[in-house]
Amino acid sequence: MSSRAAAKESAPDFRGSADMRRRPLRELGLEGHQLYHLTFSCEPIVGEVVDFCPGGREKIVTDVDKEAWLKAALRYELVGGIEEAASSFRLGVGELAGAAHLALLSAPELIEAWSGRGDISDEDMRVWKMCTEVSAARSQQAGWLFDMLQSGDLRPERRRLLKFSTGSDRWPVDTRGFKFSIEPMDGGDSALPCAMTCGNMLQLPRFSTPEHLRDRLLKALELGKDLHLT
């Protein structure tokens, strides 16, 4: 890696910030600096310099054309720079799943087959309950939970609970491999439920009423909403 590329690696990255468009480049330290100034090009960690336009590596970005540079840079990183890898990935998926089968699917159908559905229906809840292994120590609390998810106060929270417990809020189209479990944990009405996303497990304290379960679960979901679970 060249000294200039190394310097850019440590330079501030404003591409995802409104400052890039709102403030002059000089204020951001991206103009007039021998190493940090921007050009219409990209120097990958491995490989040759890529020009976004003819002679791009010699064309300095200014406040006048910085939006054009931003679009070109993002297009390269999100499209052009991964085109070869994406083509290889597409070829591999086609060989594994069958390109003829995939060609029959519309874009929404392919999204569902690949990552699941964005909604959880009443029928899905019935399947979810059937696929759940419940500890005898929490059978009563599990019954309250599924009743509220099916037709009670927790009905709008189905996706949030799925993400809290499994790491994904997408319901699988093919549920044959879906497993879920509800296990006990220490604590009573003041404790918060926990989850182990690696095992699709929800852990419930010894709640004494459905209301305590609902309130503490909602609190746990609220506290966990900003966690980027995967």
From TrEMBL:
Active site (catalytic residues): C198
Enzyme class: transferase
Superkingdom of origin: Eukaryota
One Pfam family matching this protein: HECT
Signal sequence interval, chain numbering: none
Catalyzed reaction equations: S-ubiquitinyl-[E2 ubiquitin-conjugating enzyme]-L-cysteine + [acceptor protein]-L-lysine = [E2 ubiquitin-conjugating enzyme]-L-cysteine + N(6)-ubiquitinyl-[acceptor protein]-L-lysine
GO molecular function ontology, one term from the record: ubiquitin protein ligase activity
InterPro entries linked to this entry: E3_ubiq-protein_ligase, HECT_dom, Hect_E3_ubiquitin_ligase
Alphabetical UniProt keywords: Transferase, Ubl conjugation pathway
UniProt xrefs under PROSITE patterns: HECT
Catalytic activity, EC: 2.3.2.26
Residues of the HECT domain: 47-230
SMART domains: HECTc (SM00119)
Pathway: Protein modification; protein ubiquitination
Name the UniProt record assigns to this protein: HECT-type E3 ubiquitin transferase
Organism: Polarella glacialis
